[in-house]
Amino acid sequence: MDPLDKAILVSIYSSGFDSGITPYDYFKSRTVVPEDLFNSRLKKLNKLGFVDLTDPVSLSFLGRGSIKVVLVGGVFDILHPGHIQTLKAAKSYGDVLVAVIARTSTARKINSSRVIYHDEVLRKELVSSIKFVDVALIGFESSLYRTVEYVKPDIIALGYDQAHGEKEIAMNCRKRGIDVQVIRLNTPIPKIKSTSIKEELGTSIYDI
């Protein structure tokens, strides 16, 4: 597929998570292409069966099948080089990277003693500013799999040190009728972790 056409499909998918952004708004924030060219290619994609032009514009089954969506999750409280490497590696597996930011309540259920410096809204804003990330979402509080059902990714990418097992997640997704590949990412800098950084900084991070 032509890279411009694929970028349009990505913009339609990604803008679908924010009702305040049109596909072209999303597209022009990442690509310098005139709106008339965007619209002409959009009409072509509609004729080919990739796009439904009803309001709102959406991908057809064929259009959604033409892009690969990767989901990666985390707390992302203090962004560091390890996060950047993880996000960059995850994006290399697909066309769209959806980063799911864990709610503070969810993170504390997993580890009640965990210190969290930033609320989920600010953490989402921080992650969304990273160029590898196409969509940043705050996860559902009820379940990891509720978020997976919402995003419908093709691939779930786990960080090298995340506790979830690949087989466990794949099996639970299958039980919910979700066909997804689960991979484990490596990192060239495994010693850099949020927990280690927080141990060094303590509560003085904003006094630096």
Descriptive report:
- This protein is an alpha/beta fold and 208 residues long.
- It folds into two domains: 3-64, Winged helix-like DNA-binding domain superfamily/Winged helix DNA-binding domain (Arc Repressor Mutant, subunit A, Orthogonal Bundle), CATH 1.10.10; 69-201, Rossmann fold (3-Layer(aba) Sandwich).
- Helix content is 43%, strand content 13%.
- It has ten helices and seven strands.
- It has helices at 3-15, 23-28, 35-47, 61-64, 81-91, 104-110, 120-128, 144-151, 166-175, 194-201, and strands spanning 51-52, 58-59, 69-74, 96-101, 135-138, 155-158, 181-184.
- A five-stranded parallel sheet has the order 5-4-3-6-7. Strands 1-2 form a two-stranded antiparallel ribbon.
- Helix 5 links the parallel strand 3 and strand 4.
- The radius of gyration is 18 Å and the shape is globular.
How do the strands and helices of this protein lay out in sequence?
Layout: H1 3-15, H2 23-28, H3 35-47, E1 51-52, E2 58-59, H4 61-64, E3 69-74, H5 81-91, E4 96-101, H6 104-110, H7 120-128, E5 135-138, H8 144-151, E6 155-158, H9 166-175, E7 181-184, H10 194-201
Parallel strand pairs: 3-4, 3-6, 4-5, 6-7
Antiparallel strand pairs: 1-2
